[in-house]
Design brief:
By secondary structure, the protein is mainly alpha-helical. It has 14 helices and no strands. The protein has one domain: Ribonucleotide Reductase, subunit A (Orthogonal Bundle), CATH 1.10.620. The radius of gyration is 19 Å and the shape is globular.
């Protein structure tokens, strides 16, 4: 793999936030729709420990490189959730344990049976490591695009700085997943076929089975439903197509369109309307007139 665990270890670690001025969110609060996306991201980042629990029940636990990656990945994602929770707290919104307890009650039954499902798939499908690493790469590419797009939309200097730091770590996660997926797919046409089947029939935007469906749909539609968001998602789909054996797969764009329809049907035509911050509007107007 191009990205070794040693390189990952050297560059990884706790997200640096000691110099982030979280108090500024008190005087310059974020728009409620931006906060709704942050709440979704908070929940997903913190939920990584549950994904880790499931993956360790597959035979992949025998690979020290894999378990080392899971350890570091889980640690970094935890601090992403913690930082996003501090933003929510600055807006007097539920965060950290309060949200997580409610989330785990919401999906209590699924969280109880999911380890059994992963054990069965992991031991019954020999190509499952290729499926998981490809799935993980797609989710990490999409997460990076989501943070990028949220920073563009919110146009808040403190949020932009924080999300930039998160994106740098997410980019390394995506590289590790993507390189491993590419190697596994390149080594086996069977792995390509099995992975393609799982993605076509089982893949959904991250969080679809972990938080209320409308929250996943809103984040997807708000961030990627139009303009530059569509362009970012098209780039994700191109990355997926570039993986061995997946050239005919268009996955994320159609899912976003379905999520957008779902939000509009359940929350009305104004659900995704957003008035850009003044700074962003001025900058775009300047760009178009010069």
């Amino acid at each position: 793999m191009a990205t070794t665990i040693e390189k990952f270890q050297e560059q990884g670690g706790r997200l640096k936030t000691d110099d982030i001025d979280f108090e500024r969110f008190r005087t310059e609060p974020l728009d409620p729709k931006v906060l709704r996306c942050i709440a979704y991201m908070h929940d997903i980042e913190y939920h990584t420990v549950m994904y880790t629990r499931e993956l360790l029940l597959t035979p992949a636990w025998k690979d020290p490189q894999f378990t080392s990656f899971l350890t570091l990945w889980n640690y970094e994602e935890y601090w992403h959730g913690q930082a996003l929770g501090r933003i929510l707290a600055m807006h007097d919104m539920p965060a950290h344990d309060e949200r997580l307890k409610a989330m785990r009650v919401y999906k209590k039954r699924m969280l109880t049976v999911s380890p059994v499902i992963f054990w069965a798939i992991g031991h019954g499908v020999r190509q499952f490591p290729a499926v998981h690493m490809t799935w993980g790469a797609i989710n990490e590419w999409t997460a990076n695009a989501a943070y990028n797009r949220l920073a563009q939309i919110a146009d808040h200097p403190v949020l932009t700085e924080l999300l930039g730091r998160i994106m740098r770590q997410e980019g390394r996660h995506a590289a590790f997943y993507g390189n491993w997926a590419r190697d596994l797919l390149a080594d086996s046409t069977r792995a390509q076929k099995v992975t393609s089947w799982f993605l076509r029939h089982q893949w959904a935007p991250v969080g679809s089975d972990d938080v209320p469906e409308i929250e996943t749909a809103f984040a997807c539609a708000f961030l990627f439903g139009e303009g530059e968001g569509i362009e970012l998602i098209n780039r994700v789909d191109e990355r997926v197509k570039a993986l061995p054996g997946l050239s005919g797969l268009t996955l994320v764009g159609p899912a976003i369109r379905e999520q957008t329809k779902f939000v509009l049907a359940h929350e009305g035509p104004n659900a995704l309307a957003y008035e850009r911050p003044l700074a962003a509007a001025v900058a775009e107007d300047f760009h178009h007139t010069h």
